Amino acid sequence: MTLTAELQTPEDAARLAKAETMLTPRFYKTDYAAMDRLDMSPIRAEWDAMLAEYEGDNNHDHFTRTPEFAAEVAALSADWSPQLRRDFQDFLVSSLTSEYSGCVLYNEIAKAVSNPDIKQLMRYLTRDESRHANFINQSLKDFGLQVDLVGLKRTKAYTYFKPKYIFYATYLSEKIGYARYISIYRQLERHPEKRFHPIFKWFERWCNDEFRHGESFALMMRAQPHLLQGANTLWIRFFLLAVYATMYVRDHTRPWLSEALGMDPTDYDYRVFDITTAISRQVFPLSLDTDAPAFRAGMDRLCTIAVANDRAKARGGLLGKLQQGWCAARASLCFARLYLLPVKHSELPREMRVAPSW
Predict the structure, then answer these.
(1) Angle formed by the axes of helices 116-141 and 44-56, to 10°?
(2) What is the rounded CA–CA span in Å between residue 244 and residue 45?
(3) Within a 10 A sphere around the Cβ of 49, how many other Cβ atoms?
(4) What is the DSSP letter of 123?
(5) What 8-state DSSP symbol labels residue 227?
(6) Of 9, 43, 280, 350, which has the fewest CB atoms closer than 10 Å, so is most exposed?
(7) Whose CA is closest to 183, among 297, 98, 125, 265?
(8) DSSP H helices in the chain
(9) What radius of gyration, in Å, describes the C-alpha atoms of the chain?
(10) Count of beta carbons in the 10 Å neighbourhood of residue 22
(11) Distance CA 62, CA 184 (A)
(12) Which residues, in sequence order, are bridge partners of residue 344?
């Protein structure tokens, strides 16, 4: 594992936020006309109940820093290792980019559609993600790394995704985000001495926002049942594996954050997978067998390949490029083998909504 240089300036943070790699969050565009045609009438009672929760806005006062926040950051960060400092900066920038990506996408959908159900939901989602992004940006400001979000929106590349891909990817992103945050929060409840930054105190109510966002996309998919049947199950399988693999490789090539929280990266990731799998049965008719020895061996191979690719990239030159190409081929083959492993099938429950009980 190699450690890249610590971020020094807002420009460094902006470059990281704008980077386009397999492990960095992206900005998306979609088919707004198709979004406008979505019909929520098959799940009207559940939909209206969910919108009422958004209207209640129980987190309206949550994302406000206490007067002691910055002083606590200064006191705690004085003891950080260079690895932890760089890894936490990366975590903040990646989280900011992910939250702001959702904010931008939801706002664009809200502006483009006339469907009242979709427009109202997207306005609520934009509100929540904007709060999250700005709260993270305040923590970056403590390190002199605040990102110009307007500039990021203008200059970062956008990827086009069909609505169904947005549904699969965003649902999983929100649910795995919940699982990650609540696992960290529970760990720090047990070991408060491991809380090396005050932002973790906000994680419980924060992750419940993530959970509710995932519920919204679950309802949209359940209202369009063809998205969960036939050939579309192959796409569900792909997005499950892609999200899990991305998380696993990222956490294992930069393990200092989870280790600083007193967690083994492998135990932490499989705990997150277990929670996400249990939740996603509300909407997905299949799940990955993350306990299978072949699955776990494949995930470890992806990490080994990622480390080799980083070394090849650092080497540079023609040899480095050739080695990167070989790593890409090996990673593709490994991913394909993981994709073809047996999966678990289940019937969709009649009750669509799930309580955040972890």
Answers:
(1) 40
(2) 32
(3) 12
(4) H
(5) G
(6) 350
(7) 265
(8) 10-18, 32-36, 44-56, 69-77, 82-112, 116-141, 149-155, 163-190, 203-223, 232-253, 256-260, 265-280, 293-315, 317-339
(9) 20
(10) 13
(11) 18
(12) 287
Q: Name the residue among 38, 214, 223, 168 with its Cα closest to residue 113.
A: 38
| CA–CA distance, 276 with 172 (Å, rounded to integer) | 8
pLDDT digits (tens, 9 = 90+) for 19-67: 767 667 788 899 999 999 999 999 999 999 999 999 998 888 888 898 8
Calculate the alpha carbon distances from 96 to 13, 92, 311 in Å: 10, 6, 27
Token look-up 């169904």 returns 164
Which residue in the block uniquely carries the two structure tokens 């300036």? 9
Predicted pLDDT of residue 231: 96
Looking up tokens 């990622």 gives 306
Long-range contacts of 66-69 (CB under 8 A, 24+ apart): 66/198, 68/198, 69/198
**Global pTM exceeds 0.85:** yes
Four-point Cα dihedral 57, 59, 60, 62, nearest 10: 180
CA distance 281 to 352: 9
Token output for 171 = 């649902």
For residues 82 and 6, the answer to whether their CB atoms sit within 8 Å is yes
- pLDDT tens digits for 89-104? 989 999 999 999 999 9
